[in-house]
Amino acid sequence: MYFSTHLVAGAAVGKIVGSPSLAVLLGLGTHLVMDMLPHHDYKHIINGIIDFIVGFSILSYLYWTSGNIVLLFGAIAATIPDVEVVISRFRNKRIKYFPSHTGFVPHGRAISPWGIYTQIIFIILMLVVLSH
Ligand SMILES: [Zn+2]
Question: Looking at residue 125, what is its pLDDT?
């Protein structure tokens, strides 16, 4: 699942719960659950770079306009598990511990364009939630 998709889910959870520790716990939980849903994962590093820039811009905007630091806790917790995916790609070696990356829990797959459209729609919906 895309960085931006995980990020907005974690930010929304952080905003809703209002507690940093709960935001971290539930942010990690959103990553696990969302990785189980059918979704598209990109294969090329340039798409990851674009996704990171988009996600970081969204997070900066959300924090800048709200001043709510708890949404940062949720967003970071929801995205941090994919750091091991990035490291694995760069080292060309399978180094994965998060349950939805190891196969301990199923990892959903959907082909494009539906796996892309659903994530874009989800991001827009979460931005609506976060703007209120
Ligand atoms: Zn993941």
Answer: 96
